[in-house]
């Protein structure tokens, strides 16, 4: 609200003041009436104007978070604006209004950190619109990392995605620490290195996934950055899963082991390079993303058939190890298919906004597959340790 108003004077006043020029305009100060207006109302009007402009710029139609019930937050912010004027020699309303306008954006951003409301899908900015079958419960853009991390304790479409992989990451960190800190007498260094590759892939994958689902609402740049890291983590998990299985599966066969490990590394690097492509993270490329990682995972069929022929399909250890491998692959594939097709929310839009939508199911299946794989390679490692040395060592490759 301004204390100045434009007014046109009569022709006589123009002649008297400006020598007869009818184009002259005068600005006259309007006297402020303390009975009809207050400093607080002046500041609130300014904040409302600037807040509306901030919504259009940052949220693109997404409503601003609601004002917190505790009005002390707003009063505290206002006191910062009033402080300079109150401590001065005199209270200048014009200076006070200018200071309030300068602090308006800061106040609004602080309010976002204190309290925000979930959005409808249509009110999200384009860079946050990923699954149109989830209609309600979306987080609005949050302008700070603190607000994003605090949102993990709120209920929204990403809550289960965050917590499934956060808890899984913590679990694998604990398992890895216990395994790698065992005495060398119990677990040799080469076994620690082999299992360490799997642990590293699982922890990085789950950790990047947790970070992406926590921070993807911060800004478009941060969302794209962590989405690329998330997809790179999936490729690293698949690579890390292959290492112990190929190591123990071809324990006594050096040549095929080297060939298959080299092929896995090549496919993994290719998947990572594709994941860094900007279009790869777009919503329209969801089936392609699932196809890339499914193809990478299904490449394990080749060494699995080789292993079955070499060790014998009726061998108890072959049936056990291939059974766990098959179950792990089934969990990964089913989860990826549900993710690509967006089932079940595709058939019931708005019914699975918070719980049990396709991305959450995919997370659960990935976590289950990782634990199944860990159990399977542990049994393979125990079998190799029990059997001992190979009967016929391979000829060295020159």
TrEMBL record:
Protein known as: Adiponectin receptor protein
* InterPro entries the UniProt entry points to: AdipoR/HlyIII-related
The UniProt record gives the binding positions of Zn(2+) as 213, 359, 363
| Molecular-function GO term, any one | metal ion binding
Q: Which family does it belong to?
A: Belongs to the ADIPOR family.
The alphabetized UniProt keywords are:
Membrane, Metal-binding, Transmembrane, Transmembrane helix, Zinc
Topology within the bilayer: Multi-pass membrane protein
Spell out the subcellular localization from the entry.
Answer: Membrane
**Biological process GO terms, please?**
adiponectin-activated signaling pathway
Predominant location category: membrane
Q: Where are the transmembrane segments?
A: 162-181, 193-213, 233-251, 258-277, 289-310, 322-342, 354-374
């Amino acid at each position: 609200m301004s204390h100045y108003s434009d007014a046109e004077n009569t022709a006589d006043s123009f002649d008297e003041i400006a020598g007869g020029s009818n184009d002259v305009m005068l600005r006259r100060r309007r006297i402020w009436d303390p009975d009809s207006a207050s400093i607080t109302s002046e500041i609130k009007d300014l904040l409302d104007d600037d807040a509306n402009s901030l919504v259009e710029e940052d949220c693109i139609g997404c409503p601003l978070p609601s004002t917190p019930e505790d009005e002390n937050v707003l009063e505290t912010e206002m006191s910062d604006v009033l402080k300079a004027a109150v401590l001065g020699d005199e209270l200048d309303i014009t200076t006070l209004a200018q200071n309030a306008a300068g602090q308006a954006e800061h106040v609004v951003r602080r309010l976002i950190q204190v309290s925000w409301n979930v959005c409808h899908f249509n009110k999200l900015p384009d860079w946050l619109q990923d699954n149109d079958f989830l209609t309600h419960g979306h987080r609005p853009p949050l302008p700070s990392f603190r607000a994003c991390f605090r949102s993990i304790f709120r209920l929204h479409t990403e809550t289960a995605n965050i917590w499934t992989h956060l808890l899984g990451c913590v679990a694998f960190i604990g398992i890895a620490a216990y395994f790698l800190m065992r005495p060398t007498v119990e677990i040799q260094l080469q076994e620690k290195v082999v299992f360490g590759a799997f642990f590293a892939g699982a922890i990085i994958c789950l950790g990047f996934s947790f970070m992406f689902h926590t921070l993807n609402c911060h800004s478009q740049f941060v969302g794209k950055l962590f989405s690329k890291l998330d997809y790179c983590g999936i490729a690293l998990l698949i690579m890390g899963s292959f290492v112990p299985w190929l190591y123990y599966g071809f324990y006594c066969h050096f040549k095929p082991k080297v060939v298959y490990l080299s092929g896995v590394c090549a496919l993994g690097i290719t998947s990572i390079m594709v994941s860094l492509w900007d279009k790869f993270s777009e919503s329209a490329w969801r089936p392609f993303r699932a196809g890339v990682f499914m193809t990478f995972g299904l490449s394990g069929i080749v060494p699995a058939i080789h292993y079955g022929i070499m060790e014998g399909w009726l061998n108890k250890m072959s049936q056990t190890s291939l059974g766990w491998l098959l179950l792990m692959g089934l969990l990964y594939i089913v989860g990826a298919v549900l993710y690509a097709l967006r089932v079940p929310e595709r058939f019931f839009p708005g019914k699975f906004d918070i719980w049990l939508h396709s991305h959450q199911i995919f997370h659960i299946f990935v976590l289950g597959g990782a634990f199944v794989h860990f159990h399977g390679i542990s049994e393979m490692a125990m079998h190799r340790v029990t059997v001992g040395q190979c009967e016929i060592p391979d000829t060295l490759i020159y």
